[in-house]
Amino acid sequence: MDNLAIKAGLGYGDQGGDYGTSKFSYKVGAKYYVINKIPFELSYTGASVKDADENPSYLGIHGGYTWFIGNNISIEPGVRYNVTLNEDFGKDVLQFTIGFALHF
Asked: Is a pLDDT exceeding 70 seen at residue 9?
């Protein structure tokens, strides 16, 4: 489908040291580009934290602008709001983002 992107991502973090915590994170979602320049994204982000009884998860919505710097490369500044699905790990989060995308 034109203007639709399916997204998936993986991450790993380790604070190191004797009391460090390691975590594995993942993200799945979909992004739709309105008039090829305005992306809207809905995604789910979760994590597996070492030795934790429960793990954090978030539902996120993201909007922004796409600036094409080439035929298949764009820079995408935007705003993201993550709603926590597990209040033991924090509160909702508002983020200002900048990223890049490869369009195939």
From this structure: yes
